[in-house]
Amino acid sequence: MEPAQFQQQSADPPAPLLTNWQVAAGAGEPIAVVRVHNLQGTLPVGRDAWGRANKAQPALLSTEVSFQQPFHAAAAGDNVASGDTVHYGNLSKRLRESLDRLSATPPKNPDAAAPAHKADAAGGIGPGPSAADAFEMLWVGLTGRVVDGSRRALPLDQVPFLDAGKLRSLTLTVDLPKASLLGAGVALAVTACFKMGLGEEKANPLQSYARSLRIHSLHIPTLIGVNANERQAKQMVVADVEIDRLDTTSDIHPEVEKLVFETMESSSFETLEALGSLLADKILNDFKIGDEPKTARERGWQVKVSLAKPIAVPFAECPAVEIKAGGALP
């Protein structure tokens, strides 16, 4: 899914792909931020909870625009047209327009099912454009460049919606609430840190960027616990899994969810710490994309696993643990 305006004869070096924490540290403390949260729309591409390709599904778009300078002019003139902020209504409109363009050109073979663990020639799993391809178009609509900043993706006579020379950082999240069989949804997110004092420079404006995938609130019956009663029957464990420094645009969430379910469903640990460590290691050491030989650990992914037991402590919402592994972590 690469429209004609994505074609560019020359390219700048791509920004380095880092973790969310590293990108946030590079951007520094935000001082002037505009946010749009959960803008509703429809995503006509990607894979659904069963792994089927190109099924239209609801999408929630959120963005955070952080500026290098305070809102001095906007505050003094009480006017969003001052140049040191962005009109959140127009920001929302631009995101919706990008989704509408996607919906107006549905991909071929919308009923095709995506074969599990089968990578196509473009690196995605299953036929048709991935959700990350749609994400790329949303990002281009805001910045004028592809996600890693290496290529201008708008015609030269078109001005990007956001002025990169005024930005400290930009985050875009696409939440797919119906893309998980066992959980509350799947989210793709990109955060970019912009070079300070960019001025009129035409090269890649990004200092670094992060791409992540999160599967929310998987509810999986699991044999877990130290107490005698907990050894008698499975209880519901709620798992959040986040893959940071994600270096692929493939739709991998159905396979990740399947791996998490099979690991938890067959386990019998006493502690959440042991179960969480196993889950992180299984994803890093065993997960591969299609027929590609590299494991997630070899790709440099960082995995965060959060586990909660909602019924373990009667007068608390839940006890929980969180584990992060991979990347440069020990």
Task: Put the structure in a nutshell.
The chain has 7 helices and 8 strands, in the order H-E-E-H-H-H-E-E-E-E-H-H-H-E-E. The chain is of the alpha+beta class and 330 residues long.
Fold and architecture overview:
The chain is α+β, with helices and mostly antiparallel strands and 330 residues long. It has two domains: 14-175, no CATH class; 215-326, GTP cyclohydrolase I, C-terminal domain/NADPH-dependent 7-cyano-7-deazaguanine reductase, N-terminal domain (GTP Cyclohydrolase I, domain 2). Helix content is 23%, strand content 25%. The protein has helices at residues 20-27, 72-77, 88-104, 131-143, 253-265, 272-286, 296-299, and strands at 33-43, 57-67, 167-176, 185-194, 206-222, 235-244, 302-308, 320-326. It has an eight-stranded antiparallel beta sheet with strand order 1-2-3-4-5-6-7-8. It is globular, with a radius of gyration of 21 Å. It starts with 19 loop residues before the first helix and ends with a strand. Mean pLDDT is 88; it is low at 1-9 and 107-124. Belongs to the DHNA family.
Observed structural traits:
330 residues, alpha+beta, GTP Cyclohydrolase I, domain 2, 2 domains, eight-stranded antiparallel β-sheet, 7 helices, globular, GTP-CH-I_C/QueF, Dihydroneopterin_aldolase, EC 4.1.2.25, lyase, dihydroneopterin aldolase
Q: Assign an overall shape.
A: globular
Structural class: alpha+beta
Query: Gyration radius, to the nearest Å?
Result: 21 Å
What portion of residues belong to β-strands?
25-35%
List low-confidence stretches.
1-9, 107-124
For the residues shown, what is the average pLDDT?
88
Looking at how many chains there are and whether they match, the oligomeric state comes to single chain
Helix-residue proportion? 10-25%
Q: Give the biggest sheet.
A: 8 strands, antiparallel
Helical segment count: 7
Write the H/E string, N to C.
HEEHHHEEEEHHHEE
Number of domains: 2
Identify the strand order in the major beta sheet. Answer: 1-2-3-4-5-6-7-8
Organism: Apiospora phragmitis
Enzyme class: lyase
InterPro entries: Dihydroneopterin_aldolase (IPR006156), FolB_dom (IPR006157), GTP-CH-I_C/QueF (IPR043133)
Domain Dihydroneopterin aldolase/epimerase: 213-325
